[in-house]
Write a structure and sequence with these properties.
The chain has about 650 residues and is of the alpha/beta class. It is built from 30 helices and 11 strands. Among the domains are: about 150 residues, Rossmann fold (3-Layer(aba) Sandwich); about 55 residues, no CATH class; about 190 residues, no CATH class. β3 and β4 form a beta hairpin. The longest helix has about 40 residues.
Length: about 650
Amino acid sequence: MRKRVFLVGQPNVGKSSVFNQLTGIRQKTGNYSGVTVERKTGFLEKTQIIDLPGLKSVWSTSVDEQISVREIQQLDPEQDAVLFIADGVNLAQDLLLFSQVADLQIPILLVINYQDEVLKQQIQINVNELSKRTAVSVLMISARTNTGIQQLKTAIQSDQFKYPNSFIRGQYENQSSNDTFQNTFSENIEQYHQNLGNAKYLSIVKKDYDLRQPLVDHLVEQTVQLPKDEHVFTDKIDAVLLHPIWGTAVFLMLMLFIFQSIFSFSGVPMDWIDGFFGAASSWANETIQPAWLADIVGNAILPGLGGILIFIPQIAILFFLLGILESTGYMSRISYLSDRWLRRFGLSGSSVIPLLSGIACAIPAVMSARSITDERERLAAILVSPFMTCSARLPVYAVLIGLIFPEDAYLWIFNVKGLILLGLYLLGTITALLAAWAFTKWKSSTDTTLWMLDLPRYQMPNWSDIFKHAYLKTKAFVVGAGKIILAFSIVLWFIASFSPHTESFFQEEIAKQTEHSEASIRLEYSYAGYLGKTIEPVIRPLGYDWKIGIALISSFAAREVFVGTISTVYSIGSEEEMTVIERLQTEVNPETGKKRFNWATCISLLLFYAFAMQCMSTIAIVKKETGGWKWPIIQTTGMMVLAYVSALVAYQVLS
């Protein structure tokens, strides 16, 4: 019995389904050391089963795929083996990858998945001939219907792994010493990954495919017989879905459905979560003794946990719906449609989902960037996604736009407030694309690798895998980013709740300042209040005073906190939109005698919140996804500089 068995295969071959069938509940998910790529492990009896990230080629450049290649190269043939999973409907492209793994000369068991689809589409695979020509055992299964799983378990436990026939390894060794090929196939792979973009090693990849493809084509001709109308169904659907007009229309309707679903379906559970933690906080404040413990539990820990868990419905719904698109084969079509125009900004079709996801929330947008194989593009998508106008900005926009325009302001038949809101969404999108262009120009690369896209066949989604996928992604957010978010929440609560002054000082101020609420006075003389006054000289050129400064600081926890904070600062006991607007419209700048929230100040604030990060949850998840603090610091600093300069120019020009 083997000590470890590594599951290897291309994306969308049902590898995760096979893993789930083999391991059942005896599995766990973690990250590879030093990176955020997920590692799934489980057990079949005493054999450890390791599900490697999907692999398209041993020459791939993405972090996920390089990890798979490195794991395969480092396994011990005496104790370890490869369970190669292939899609029986697309066997030709899978056998190309199989030939590369075979030339690494490690024990392999070839498993052909989707037997039910193979029979349905009348594809004939000569398993015996394929086994004879590759020199490995070949099994036909269907993980979706549990067909052949028991035979597969028996094959693993009885160690039916065999060394495969070499495809082109011998040709490598027979090359002239002056040729670009070096000693062995494995060494070439190592050198290629260490010298990405080097023309010499790019030529190695081309020569490898030139040698390998004819051999694989011949193997397929001898072992696989396809029906004449094999591609008719797929071609008919793609004629619509890949059409530049109709395909784009279908795509936009699907995206509209996804984002409407995120807002509509997540609203109720988010309200439940919000209500639960609100009630729990009230209970803690009224029940727990001593008072300081009630304060930290009711006003720091529970709100902090609520701020983490309230994102669960959005994340779960998004990844559930994206899982359906991926499982059916449509995700690749989305990338194909958007690739052409995104390339103008240094991105590719792989980035469309993270960018669009940012309209709902930057957190799932950043997480969904994992699907991007090119590391530079993935990083670009992560860094620019927060520019997309997320739902957290809407409360801020609603209040500030309401301060500028009355309810009955129209431009022809269009409500002016709606047009301004639309303009802010467009501003966020354009800024994200321009930032991606600037980043990819700045972080130049000599890598000339092209974006390769396989269009998989259409199929019914595997619901079990989709639910498990959504669960694991959601869990990763709660466990990984939650610790950082909770720590930030406690710090923010501390500086807003404590003061260097005594209680007698506050009683005197409350007695003197009868026009202000107790909450407003305590906030003014808290550490947060003094911090607001400390930064006032910096934000004064933007049209802000120390009170707005407190709102800027506190809304770092989440942008929508701005409304609640500004309500407290200006002695408003309610967060209702019109109440806030009516009170702010009467606020006067004591130095000028004019309105504090005039046109210039409101436009300045709109631009500031359009560009500033102001979301510790996003910072936490960016830190998790990039593996350190370098990029979150660069991202937050860059967005803050852009926000400050934009707000400064707007205020100085308009005031």
